[in-house]
Design a protein that fits this description.
The complex is a heterodimer of chains A (414) and B (390). Chain A is of the alpha+beta class. Chain A is built from 13 helices and 8 strands. Classes of the chains: A alpha+beta (414), B alpha+beta (390).
Chain lengths: 414, 390
């Protein structure tokens, strides 16, 4: 690969944008141009809708797009995790079939990993895939699936070998969600929102060509997906800076973002809303109570320390130093902060904490905090799993004895 | 070059979230020195002596590493670094639990002189301190243990060519070995923040009666000092009032917070090591989730407190307007963390952790005395709320 300079890339992308960018195009039309030219995902390989540029230069492209306000490829939801997984493990046929429509936003994706019987222990999945003729036949149940009700394709982890050890009997598939054997039902959470689905598979079909990686390599492929999930942000598509821009394409993008963010409207409340604490204390007069003042101070000390810990981790990374323990603690810290927030919001709110909806303070936001925070210490790895990871990987403590070795068929399960 | 000149030419320093390579090398040098000079056998030997420190080690620490003057400007004989480096020293000292009059001399006394002294006083007093030739300490709180300067009762009465001090100071760190005393006192018939000032006098001056107190933490000695008309000099100018006293206490809180997180890290390391060695029920106890999770929580706690202590030091170093609030934040965070880590450290050690022969109690006692010195966590949390305007 010939080395290109930043200036060359800048000139090239500028010229291309000048010749092609038009806010009155349709979103799909424009993104098709992005996919064909490679400017939508410049860090991807040339043969697959990219330009093979290093990440640093991809940022340059991003800057130039931002300067003219040009819309990028579709990025919301699971689609980019799907793309990254297919780029690494998929066949050429799969890449050809799926990648382009991921970028144009024509297809929506979801992820079928968690099951009612395997949450923290993801590799204990019991949804089965049995090869019959040219098709894998899928039976079982998945849960916590975001966007399954409008997804076209799903990333599916299913068991293909019950005699192999737990992690070696899994395979990874792309499944067509819109087929008779797939029944998607909304899952209502304790906070009243329904951001997720539970999905039942009854003799659903997956063509053989949709096996990703080899049979029995499903865990390895799933690890790629999860690694990209951890690397990307929390799944939220940030409200576009182009929010006020005029043109057909911007309107279409706003609608797309709105739809993608719909399930996550309560996420700020889930994190505890530490930003509301002092204002609430002042408006309720709770700031005059010495006990409440102590509790607010404890919370703020924790929240600030957590923020600075994250910044220490980032600073170490930027200096190219090996990350210290501070890098592994973010999730657990956030969970502590959220729960402390919930406690202090209750202290400040008092009896009004019995109310919800419009009757309750801040148009129901406070009530939503109280019933959303319990998710933080569970979603994306429970606090207990985080502690195991910290203890084993950072403190180098020994693993617990395992009871799930040998043929999976004999392993105790739900 | 004056401070305002500097800001014209140099961009204002920003708060850093990582130490520089030079700072890390500095830390390594201190740690190597302390590994050699302050094993717990030495801590135990020195804590049992009346002086509580080894003058030979103090001289080396001063001459070879220049630590007492690390933050003292070069024109007063110091190394010219700042709050960040001072706090790095404190963190390492806290980790090694070095028995030495560093906190009293370099942190409390030197900062009091820097904050309050006239040009002539700084030039006269600081070079000896930077060199390690003069031990000094600061006496603010009194037998009632109040850390708010409002509560100061020692009276300084103008007298021929100076002042006469009357009253009692207590909890004076290294007050039994200091050569120079810096005393917070008030003008006769004043109350509150009015009439407060700092005074200096030789520890062996007439009318000074020093008594070593029996302290729970034998690695940090404290004294009670009675003043019966002792002759003293004003440090700085009348009318500065409580400001330099508060500034000195806030700096001390940040320095102590850094010492505490160093100690907490030592306790965590010791608990982790023990959990990997100790076998019960046929397994190392570190393989039980009950212990692993406790240790993971301790790590989180220690890292959060470190972040607060480091941030406060950085903020003070660049004179961020928020830094006094952050001093209270860091002190409260480090106090809770240090004591909690010490208590959990003993718990993980089990029965042996409660014995005198096991070293954990040495840090536990430092944690306990540091928790209340300069004010309890609850005091600093209230101060934080006030300083943040809540």
């Amino acid at each position: 690969m010939s080395k290109v300079s930043e200036a060359e890339v800048r000139t090239e992308v500028r010229e291309w944008l000048a010749a092609n960018w038009d806010p009155d195009m349709s979103l799909v039309e424009w993104r098709s141009k992005l996919a064909d030219s490679g400017w939508g995902m410049p860090q991807w390989p040339k043969e697959w809708y990219g330009r093979g540029l290093p990440h640093a230069l991809a940022r340059v492209v991003e800057e130039e797009f931002a300067k003219v306000g040009a819309v990028g490829v579709a990025k919301s939801g699971v689609r980019l995790l799907a793309a990254a997984t297919l780029l690494e493990h998929g066949s050429d046929l799969q890449k050809k079939k799926f990648l382009r429509r991921i970028l144009t936003g024509e297809d929506t994706w979801c992820q079928f990993f968690s099951e009612p019987g395997s949450g923290s222990d993801l590799a204990g999945a019991t949804t089965r895939a049995d090869l019959t003729g040219d098709f894998w036949i899928i039976n079982g149940q998945k849960v916590w699936t975001t966007s399954a009700h409008h997804a076209d394709h799903g990333l599916l982890l299913a068991r293909t070998d019950w005699d192999a050890p737990k992690h070696e009997g899994l395979s990874y598939f792309v499944i067509d969600v819109k087929q008779p054997g797939v029944d998607v039902q909304q899952l209502k959470q304790m906070n009243g929102h329904a951001s997720f689905n539970q999905v039942f598979f009854t003799d659903a079909k997956v063509p053989q060509e949709n096996l990703v990686g080899r049979i029995g390599e499903g865990w390895k492929v799933a690890m790629t997906t999860l690694a990209h999930e951890r690397r990307s942000a929390d799944g939220l598509t940030s409200p576009s800076k182009r929010g006020t821009r005029v043109g057909r394409i911007h309107a279409e993008e706003r609608a797309e973002t709105e739809k993608a963010n719909q399930p996550y409207k309560w996420y700020p409340q889930r994190a505890g809303r530490v930003d509301l604490i002092t204002d609430r204390a002042k408006e309720t007069g709770a700031n005059k109570d010495p006990y409440v003042r102590q509790e607010i101070a404890k919370l703020m000390i924790m929240a600030k320390s957590a923020e600075w810990t994250a910044r220490r981790a980032r600073a170490a990374q930027q200096q190219g130093r090996p990350q210290g323990p501070e890098g592994s603690l973010g999730k657990l810290a956030a969970s502590h902060v959220a729960r402390a927030c919930s406690r202090v919001h209750t202290l400040i709110t008092g009896t009004e904490a019995m109310l919800t909806g419009r009757e309750s303070p801040r148009e129901g936001i406070i009530a939503e905090i109280l019933v959303s925070v319990p998710a933080v210490s569970i979603a994306g790895g429970t606090d207990e799993i985080q502690r195991n990871i910290i203890a084993e990987r950072v403190l180098d403590l020994p693993k617990e004895p395992r009871f799930d070795t040998g043929p999976f068929r004999n392993v105790r399960r739900n | 070059m004056s401070k305002s000149d500097e800001s014209k030419f140099e961009p204002k320093r920003r708060i850093q979230f990582a130490f520089t390579d030079e700072q890390e090398q500095f830390r390594t040098a201190i740690r190597r020195f302390l590994n050699d000079k302050s094993p717990t056998t030495e801590v135990r030997r020195l804590m049992a002596t009346a002086e509580g420190y080894d003058p030979r080690v103090w001289r080396q620490l001063s001459a070879d590493l220049g630590l007492p003057g690390i933050h003292i400007p070069e024109q007063y004989g110091g190394a010219g670094f700042g709050m960040v480096e001072l706090c790095m020293v404190m963190e390492e000292l806290g980790r090694a639990l070095l028995c030495a009059p560093y906190f009293s001399t370099a942190v409390l006394a030197a900062n009091a002189i820097l904050n309050s002294g006239t040009e002539a006083q700084k030039s006269a007093l600081l070079p000896d301190i930077a060199e390690g030739a003069r031990l000094a300490t600061l006496a603010v709180t009194e037998p009632d243990g109040n850390w708010d300067p409002i509560g100061i009762k020692v009276v300084a009465t103008p007298d021929a060519g100076g002042y006469r001090l009357d009253g009692v100071k207590s909890y004076v760190v290294d007050g039994h070995v200091a050569d120079l005393l810096i005393v917070a006192a008030r003008a006769p018939k004043t109350v509150g923040r009015e009439g407060l000032a700092l005074f200096t006098l030789g520890a062996n001056a007439g009318g000074v009666e020093r008594r070593l107190l029996e302290s729970m933490d034998p690695t940090r000695k404290i004294a009670r000092i009675d003043f019966h008309g002792a002759h003293a000099n004003l440090l700085g100018n009348l009318g500065d009032g409580a400001k330099p006293i508060l500034r000195t206490l806030d700096q001390a809180a940040i320095a102590l917070a850094n010492e505490m997180v160093g100690g907490a890290q030592a306790l965590l390391d010791s608990a982790v090591n023990y959990a990997k060695l100790r076998v019960q029920f046929g397994r190392t106890i570190g393989s039980f989730q009950a212990i692993k999770h406790k240790l993971a929580d301790m790590l989180l706690d220690v890292e959060l407190a470190k972040s607060a202590a480091y941030y406060a030091a950085q903020a003070a170093a660049v004179d961020d307007p928020e830094w006094p609030a952050l001093a209270s934040l860091a002190k409260a965070a480090a106090s809770e963390t240090y004591l909690h880590t010490a208590a959990e450290g003993i718990q993980i050690h089990g029965g042996i952790g409660f014995t005198w022969d096991n070293d954990t109690h040495l840090w536990f006692k430092r944690a306990k005395s540091s928790e209340v010195f300069l004010g309890q966590p609850s005091y600093h949390r209230e101060l934080l709320m006030q300083r943040w305007g809540v």
